[in-house]
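Task card 7
Instruction: Convert sequence to structure tokens.
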Amino acid sequence: MMAVDGNVAEDFLFDVPYEDNVGATEHCALCLLVVPSLAAAQNIFSKPGQTVTLPCGSPKNNTTPATWIKDGFESEGCVAQFRDNNFANASQHPSYRGRVKLNRNKSLTMKKLTTADSGTYICETYWGGSFHNETVSLIIVHKEQNISNTTGQTVTLSCGSPKDSITDVTWIKGQVELNNRNKSLILKNVTVNDTETYQCKYYEEGEQHTEIYHLSVDPAGGDSEGRRHVGLAGVFVFVVGVVFVVVFVVVGFVVYKRHQKKKKHPPVCPDEAAVQQLV
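Output:
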């Protein structure tokens, strides 16, 4: 029932088998009834076709019971479940068969991601005499962009292309949903407080899409002020250099003229001067 790669000592993966095993365990939703509350979800971003690993935080114990579900789809089946040293294949949702692997610490590796894999995943484990759970929000990103700007300017973030026919637009700043349902999010007079990751979620032809914008806002005049100081210093050095060259040329010219003048009127020795006076 369980395929183990013995070549890896610490982080080997359990392949969740495809064949059915109806008697392996109860339905995956039953054990989750005892979960008291769910912590804030950790966001994990990935793209269609890629492979991603969702953390669980369980001890590296092969026998630790673990259940992975997708929030809102409990009645349709588990993503993966390991219990009584066996995988509960009967309770696994068909869309995850052959695509998921369970790690020693019960984190979940999922490959060949699609848009439909977006959502909140819950990992429940039982160890130390109590249940533990971790919530992960998997976001399949169709577009990702880094944007840099300076304080006081206007930034416009746009979902999809102008020709796209999209509906149910939702903008999220960090973890906070914004009150904006338009394709474009206009941020006026931005400040450093607007530095954040923005998500735009929308539906197109019945399929949900997510776009990510990483906005970075520099303090007012930060870079330009630095460049201005560097520019002024450069101008000062240039002017001092020019003045030095001019002074050097003038002094050299004066010395040269004096030297030439001495050549035209050589000094007269005393005897010659006396002779000249007698004459």
